Amino acid sequence: MGLLEGKVAFITGGAQGQGRSHAVTLAKEGADIVVTDILEPIPETLPYETSKPEHLAETVRLVEELDRRCLSIKADARSSAEMKGAVDQAIGEFGKIDILSVNHGLTINVGWDVQTDEIWDTTVENNLSACWRTARAVIPHMIENGGGAIVFTSSAAAHTAYASLSAYTAAKIGVIGLMRSLATELAPHWIRVNAILPGAVATQMLHSQSVIDMFTGKPGATIEEMAPPAQAMSLLPLPWIEPVDISNGLLYLASDMGRYVTGIELPIDAGTVHQPAGVPPATAARLGELEAWYAQAQAEGKA
């Protein structure tokens, strides 16, 4: 038997990326799955590909290949009515929700001087307010069912400063505050509430051209060129981690492995939030290589 045999997991943003990985990982452990996604860009100018119906259908296919049931619902987490409708549909199908993974979110990389009210409001509404609306729709059913596990996806950005991410960072810090308050309020009902803080994760969001350009400082850069500056953010010598690494943290928090764990922030970030001040080792090594190359070029009269 799997760690989640007989459980039902409700996952927002489940059409691709971390959400799809969460669905597959929990299904492997025996859970039946409900996945929601808005399936359209927010805003229309979002600089990376967002989920489409075929992406959500692929998540369903992957879960059903594991002989687990999967209900997919097109729903906008910003809408209390749509989330209530999605939760009611899930309850009607499965009778309960044991696990809630509030995974949806977006990022728009802009400096303070070009950030509009629309970008700020869109980011905060999606990454914070919609998290509350999702949880609020599920909590009454968990109370009625005698308990459950809620896991919010925050970010290493809640503890590490990034340029051009002020709205995103503010919202992700807000998610931690929401998690702490709900953990306090819901503990008497045996509902555990925690947050995962991913670092750089290999998804379409991280590998969008706008993010690659931001990391490298030049337009039209490649993923390969992004790897060295991305690696400089982490203590471990790698530029990013895989979605399944976040899913494994979710599995711990959602299962009986973490049955007495509530109110915590779990960084899964290759050490990003503990990177000490100063020039990171990866950057220092790269600078050393460039200095050696330049010295050699000078010696050969090529520089």
Task: Walk me through the topology.
Layout: E1 8-12, H1 17-28, E2 32-37, H2 53-64, E3 70-74, H3 80-94, E4 99-102, H4 117-145, E5 148-153, H5 166-186, E6 191-198, H6 209-216, H7 223-231, H8 243-254, E7 265-268, H9 281-299
Parallel strand pairs: 1-2, 1-4, 2-3, 4-5, 5-6, 6-7
Sheet with the most strands?
Answer: 7 strands, parallel
Ranges where pLDDT stays below 50 over 5 or more residues in a row are: none
What is the CATH H-level superfamily? NAD(P)-binding Rossmann-like Domain
Give the tally of β-strands: 7
Helical content band: 40-55%
General shape: elongated
Helix/strand-derived class?
Answer: alpha/beta
Order of helices and strands: EHEHEHEHEHEHHHEH
- Average pLDDT for all residues: 92
Cα gyration radius (Å) = 21 Å
- CATH classification, class level: Alpha Beta
End-to-end CA span: 65 Å
Beta percentage is 5-15%
Number of H/I helices: 9
Across the major sheet, the strand order is 3-2-1-4-5-6-7
Number of domains: 1
The CATH topology annotation reads as Rossmann fold
Under the CATH scheme, the architecture is 3-Layer(aba) Sandwich
